[in-house]
Amino acid sequence: MSDRVYKKRFILISAIILILSITLIGCSSESVENSDSTSKSSNMITFAWPRDIGEMNPHIYNPSQLFAQSMVYESLVSYQEGGELKPHLAESWEISEDGKEYVFKLRQNVKFSDGTSFNAEIVKKNFDTILKNVDLHSWLGFIPKIAQTEVIDEYTFKLTLTEPYYPTIQELAVVRPVRFLGEAGFPQDGDTSKGIAEPVGTGPWVLDEYKVDEYAIFKRNENYWGELPSVESIKVKVIPDAETRVLAFEKGELDLVYGEGVISIDSFKQLESTGSYGTSISEPVATRQLVMNTNKEQLADIRVRQALHYGFNKQAMVDGVTSGLEEKADYILPTNMPYTSNVDAATVEYNVEKANQLLDDAGWKLPKGKNVREKDGKPLEIELMYNSAESIQKTMAETLQSEWAGLGVKLNIAGVELTTQVERFKANEFDMNFYSNFGAPYDPHTFVNMMAIEGFGFREAISSYPNKEELMNQIAEVQQTTDETERQQLYTSILGSLQEQAAIVPISYIKKIAIYQKDVSNFTFPANRDEHPFSGISVKK
Fold this sequence. Notes:
A 6-stranded mixed beta sheet has the order 14-20-13-19-17-18. The protein is globular, with a radius of gyration of 24 Å. The protein is of the alpha+beta class and 541 residues long. The longest helix is centred in the first third of the chain and has 18 residues, at 3-20. The chain contains 16 helices and 23 strands. Helix 1 (3-20) packs antiparallel against helix 12 and helix 15 packs antiparallel against helix 16.
C-alpha cells in the first residue's frame, strides 16, 4: 500500500482513537425519546458517562460511543486476556498458507434482537456496506486490502485479501466498524454511513429507552445466543462533569463509575479510603510516553535523549502525580500485550550523575555563572507540549521542568488543546510531546506501523536513528510474515531498537478504574480496551 493511503489511514486513527483513549467521544444525533422510568428496576445497574451514547450505528465513529456499540453489536472474533483471539460469531476460521484467504465458519442458531437469522449473507452485506466507504475505514489495516467477500454457504463466509496481512484476525475484534447490523437496521439505500433505521444487533443488550443527552436504558436480550447477563438492564446517565458524577455516586444515584479519567485520581482515592465501596484497578491498558523529536538539533544526539531519561525520578513522579494509581513504565508498550513480553532493552533507573556525564560527553557544558548548558553558543532549551485539559500531563510537565533544570536544561512547557496537540505532532512542529498508545486490540501492530508513516509524527521523530532503514524494512516485513516465530523475533527487535534509541520514553502504565456500590459484585475489566464492562456484573437490591 502507498505511503499516501497509509498517511490517510493513520491521520484518521490518530484523531479518532487518541480521543477515545481519554473516553471523551461525541454527542448524539437520531433518537427515539421516551420519558425516564419513574421507578428503578431492582435488577438494574446505573452508571454515568460523560457523553450521550450517540446514534448506535456500528459502522461509524464519533458520536457513537464504543462501550454502547459493543453492548448491541458483536464481532466474528473476540480479544481476550493476554491477546488471545477466540471465536465469537465465527466459531472457527482457516487461513490459507499464503495469508490471503480467510474462511469463517459462522455460529449457527444466532438471532438478531428482532428474531431474524445471523448468516453469511448478512455478514457479506455488512462487509460490503463498509467497503462502499473504504476511505472512511481505511485506518484499519486490513480493510483497504480486501479484494473479495464471498458467501460459500449459509454459514460459511470467505474474505480474500490482496496481500498477506497478519493482524487481520486481531483487527476483526475491534468494536467498529466490522460489527454486524441486522437487515431491519439498514437504510433503504443500504448505505449505513448516512445513518441506520434502528439498532438491531446480536449482542446481549437491546436499546430500550433513550432521551438525548440525558439517559439510555439497555434491556437484556432474552434471546441472546450466549450466556445471559445477570442483570436485567443497564441505565446510562449522561453526566458531563466529573465532580457531579462523584456527588451522584455518593448519593447512591449511581451503582458504578468506570473508565479512564472519568473522575479525578483524588476523588477515586478519597472514595476508596472510606471503605464503603468496592474498587478495582485494571491491568495496564496503554503506556504514557514522552516522544522526543530527533529532527531538533538539541535532541538529535542519543546521549542527550538518554541523559533526559536518566535525569528524572520516574518512580517518584508517577507515585506523586497519580497517587500510585498508575505504575512506572519500563517499556514503551505494556508487557501484557501480544509480542511485547520479550523486548530486549535495558531499563533506565534514575541517575543524575550519569545524566550529567552524558550531557558533558555530548558537548553541552554549563558555563560558569549560568544555569543553562550551552554548545557552540546555543542554550540547551527545549519545549514540551502537553494537553491543557489533562491535569496529569500538566503536572508531569512541571515536574520534568523542575528536575531537568537541575541538569542545566531549560524546559519550556506549552499547554495546548488536544486538537492542536495532534495537529502539531503530525506536522512535526514539536520538540517533545506526551503520547499514549492505543492499547488492545490495536497494538503492537498499530503502534509499530505508525513509525513508518510519513506525516504522522513518529517517522519524523525517529529520523536520526542510525538503523532507521533496517527498522523500516522490519516493520514492513512483520505485517506480512506468516511465520509466528519470525514475527515474534521481528517485534522483539523493533520494540527493543525503538526503546534503546531513547526518542520514545516510557513514563507510566495507564489503567482503568472502577468504583461501585457494595451491592454490586463480579465486576471485571474487559481485555479489549473499548468493550463494555457488563458481561459478568451482578447486583443485589
